[in-house]
Fold these 4 entries.
Entry 1:
Amino acid sequence: MKHLYIHIPFCQRRCSYCDFNTYANMDDRIEAYVDALCTELVARGQALGPAASSTFIHSQVITPPLTRAALRPTIFLGGGTPTMLSLPQMERVLAAADTLVPAAAAEVTTEANPGTVIDEAYLRGLRSLGINRISFGVQSLHDPTLRVLGRIHTAAEAIATYHQARRAGFERVNLDFIFGLPGQTTAQWAWTLDRLAEIEPEHVSLYSLIVEEGTPLHQQVTRGSITVPDDDESAAMYELAMERLAAAGYTQYEISNWAKHTGAGQPGGNHAWALPTGACHHNVAYWLNADYVAAGAGAHGHIYPQRWHDILGINDYIRTVRAGQLPTAETVALAESDLLGETMMMGLRLNSGVSFAHFADRCGDDLLAVYGDEIRDLTELGLIIQDPIGIRLSERGRMLGNEVFVRFLREPADAHAS
Ligand code: SF4
């Protein structure tokens, strides 16, 4: 297996907007959870057979067309807050992960909450365990907003932690930000983007705030005690981000993701098919609809023709693994129409789009033979661009992504109708 997601469902405190499978005030279960997680990782590895070759050589600069073969093996620790684990706990998890995806050749990422990364020694420890990429949830540089969101750090602490990670030897750092936040103005967002460009992480992820039902933030917005920017204001902030980050030397390679390019063959704004060297290979694997294993409470895995997710609750998860069972909560069988539709929906999120080579590799079919009518219509509407390498969203298509994606979904029986 080439890609592995590991879920660590612990947080110091729940943020007001969060609907992830994560739990606060359960620190006393971390050790037992790590035991169960390591057991699951080894069991999933045994079920899948020997790990992929550790001699995989990755060329840093990926030449178009982008396909699954070009990606590094990846391990991604997400959450929740993986940095709630101690270094010995992290070491055990990574040793178990290594039985599935050899870590030596892999991009190994951990998400991190700046409020939980205690000091530079901890970050150096993570680096020495083979974690070579770190992703900090910063979300805002405005302290009052961070408080409204329930974040456990200030802007200054987040920036200080970023610099500590640099000193600890992390050469690949992502910063996550949210726009469309309560009370946020376009001027505030412009200021944030300028600070971001000065900080200069290799990678930036920007997400529009989604007020999820069932969250404390949703209650506050519904009651009217908090107001958030409307769709037009959020769209303006997104366009501003595209403009400012391009000016700061970032290449947008996915709807919400930007990265620096440091190798030969500078992609620049015009080289539509290139992947910047700072890109996150794990997330690109998702967008290429690649197969990946997942482990941990609530983690979702995908090995075509199946997808599954693990038991959500921490105690149920631990109990099931201790009873000698895999903690799978549900397995869903996928039809060929799912493979085709998801390859298009996910792939078109990438600025490089879906190459003919990638579609043939993932779906075993010819893109124009399967979706010729849709591609013709969408090209005439100016939403898609076709060239000799494949198809991708136009600027206009990027703003109307959902209208494009839906055209590639079909009922199972119609999957090969065209
Ligand atoms: S730190 Fe992240 S995972 Fe944890 S509650 Fe906040 S948003 Fe959710």
Entry 2:
Amino acid sequence: MAENTATARYQQVADKYADLIRNGTFEPGSRVPSLRSISRQMSVSMTTAMEAYRVLEERDLIAARPKSGLYVRCCGILPPAPAKTSGSTEAVSLEIGSLVLGMMRDAKAGHLVPFGAAVPNPTFLPTEALNRVLAREVRSKPETSQAYDSVQGFEPLREQLARRALNAGSALSPNEIITTNGAHQAVYLSLSAVTKPGDTVVVEKPTYVGLLQVLEALQLRALEVATDPEEGLCLECLDEAIQRERIAACVLVPSFGNPLGHNMPTEKRADLVEMLAAAEVPAIEDDVYGELYFDRDRPRTLKSFDNNGLVLLCSSFSKTLAPGYRVGWVAPGRFLKAVEHQKYITSVATPTPTQMAVAAYLKGGAYDRHLRRLRSTYCGLVARMSASVAEYFPSGTRITRPRGGHVLWVEMPDGVDSMAMYQLAIQRGISFAPGPMFSASREFSNFMRLNCAVPWSDAVDAAIRTLGDLAREMS
Ligand SMILES: Cc1ncc(COP(=O)(O)O)c(C=O)c1O
């Protein structure tokens, strides 16, 4: 009897706090009261308060952020459906290309609410500080700044990158790194170095749209492998593909992939690297979101498990510092010379001034402080946006629960055509990324990707409501 009463009590406490979360008293992304204050406010024991929080965690209403306590997630929306199948397709056609270019144009159109391109709002970035560093560097080293840089890239920057690689589990030397024009060029150079036209390349499904464009440009076939919204690439499906045909490379974004926001578990990363090494398949790892984790630890890169030089690690500062600086890099393992050669053919060198600025900024020590703020901002915005989608979108909508990055992948009810919805949304002053852009086989017609790296305001909330209304009308 006593036990039943106690059970009822923690359920009551959980229900009460669930209501407070749903009615917005505790905003998504905010910290929930400490156990001590719950125990005081509700006149319950600490054990009961703890049990109530366990229930709220089970209901996905709150989640623990190591070292910083519990915080509010979003309200009562369906989690993403697990990945279903894999299948192969031919290289994508140019139709996606024009859609992407249109979206990039829309992203620059100041009048649109920018949920489309996965670009951080400038107010989140240390633009003034970085530009000051740039001005100081070019003033103090005019000759260096105007000269061609070496093909491999600016050495002080490579030194800083090698130091930071330790945080992700890799001991790299500056000589193992090549700087690039963003992560996009890093992936392009890597694919150019390890494939030839007509080869088959494994990609995640859904995947980063820019990657599909690169495959198309290099005349490669995309073999799409099912990718789970929580755990990433399906290893059984990959194994099956490897047994079936010759795979020239596997390109993936294991840390907070785009558009799913998945985070591949550590053991699975190790298994993946081992599986690819056994088949001698190079892995091109795109880690642009790796620094944007919401939990305590940075995910380890695939590169950190690589004993064979078969992982080509690509990344950039586009999501964290300055997309327009176009500073990225690749650590290509045993393909160093081939990638360097490709870089020389396509661009000779990376612009020197922006490399100088990023190197000096990193050396100055402000980057980690900035990252801590940025992670917390993105975590809050992802939660806030999730709550609005939950409130305004039709029932049956599913949404991812990313633990890093700044994009959400939304599955709307069957019947919603996100391409048609995109045109209607643009007329109403809102951009987003329609689902079919993210797969070579043009699936995901009722999905959309939302960029959450937008300062929250009533206008942003109203834009989500408008999208929800459109989805409801079409479903
Ligand atoms: C997974 C992924 N890779 C690469 C890029 C492009 O990065 P960059 O601007 O550094 O070329 C993006 C941008 O959206 C991305 O999402």
Entry 3:
Amino acid sequence: MPDVFVAKFSQFPDGDRRIVSAGTTEIGVFHWAGQFYAYENLCLHQGGPACEGVMMHKVEDVLGADRTFQGQRFSKDEMHFVCPWHGYEYDVKTGECAADRKLKLKSFEVVRRGEDIYVVAD
Ligand code: FES
């Protein structure tokens, strides 16, 4: 299958995403922290459009020196997208399900050719 055009680099700002079709496969493409990531838009739970869900920083517990719970905060390093059907969260940098890292969305290579961004569909 030929590579799928995603967007012009200048029209795909960091923090944004696109959904493209490669034949019958939908692919979510993310531009995050200077890198591009692409995953099949098919949730591992029940097939929802996982890549279309809200993006939010991972919520982390804050523990005191004595290991007591002090509250929660948003991670500075880890961004998730959340399947809109039932809330499975995926790490945007790996495609792994945050609750079970053994579960991982199918990923695709993203390439930049000049000003154009493509997904390498297989
Ligand atoms: S289908 Fe995605 S969380 Fe259920």
Entry 4:
Amino acid sequence: MTAVAVVGLGAMGSRIARRLLDAGNDVVVWNRDPSKAHELVSAGAVAATSPADAARRADAVITMVSNPEALDAVVGGPEGIAAGADTGTTVIQMSTVGSEATAKLASALPEGTGLLDAPVLGSLSEVESATLTVFLGGPDELVRAWEPLLATLGTVLHVGGVGAGSAAKLVANATLVGTITLLGESIALADRLGLSRDVAFDVLAATPLAAQAERRRPAIESDDFPRRFALSLARKDADLIRTAAPDLRVVEAAREWFLQAEQAGGGDDDYSAVLKEILN
Ligand SMILES: NC(=O)c1ccc[n+]([C@@H]2O[C@H](COP(=O)([O-])OP(=O)(O)OC[C@H]3O[C@@H](n4cnc5c(N)ncnc54)[C@H](OP(=O)(O)O)[C@@H]3O)[C@@H](O)[C@H]2O)c1
């Protein structure tokens, strides 16, 4: 049986580990806060004592942590993944960290270690229903070897070499942060022009934002934005897009809304709560 380690058991990593366990894999887990491993260990996973230990125990090591700094923290140092990986290991990097951090990861791993770049589109319910989209970057041979495992999480799109997965994910998230802030501004405009919210939603239903407006309407009307994807992580993604393409203006305007909402104390809210900031 294939042994897969999952390093980073936050909202996404814990569910990915659970899904891989349910699919019959041997699963090794590690998290900075070890209490997040308990439920998975009860379900049959093995707790590693460090990211290096996780790498030694597994054929593939999935990383699913917050940001580039967190990835550095689990890869480097005497207890990091690089210290435990060898030519028999494939690291499957699934966090959203951008292309620079992916290149840095590639250079931090020992010679001959396999590396796949595999960030995902979709959130908590999409992991649970195995309907994520996995943007996979890497050499054909490794893609062939690990695509079946990743296919247990959803649809795998092989988008190019290592780094292309991270690039694809930033493209996808440019649409995410841009769309939700444009929705907020469109409703704000309707408010300023004196249209009722019902009329505003009728108008939006006839526009390219129809699906997004329908999806967000209950949260806007109840002022309840259940957390799936932290607002601080969406701001981090907008930062990564800015680093990759500083001249883009719409995403930069969206980034400013997220930053403002975060500075107002909303970093731990769901990213869609940026609508509250725009509409207040
Ligand atoms: N949530 C979503 O809908 C979604 C969807 C697609 C992609 N993503 C991306 O997936 C990644 C994870 O997101 P998430 O929602 O699972 O985030 P999360 O719930 O906040 O989990 C973050 C994980 O990173 C770990 N971490 C943070 N800083 C660390 C450090 N310095 N050293 C070691 N571990 C560290 C945390 O460990 P502790 O538990 O010890 O804090 C936790 O395991 C992010 O890159 C995010 O952008 C998220």
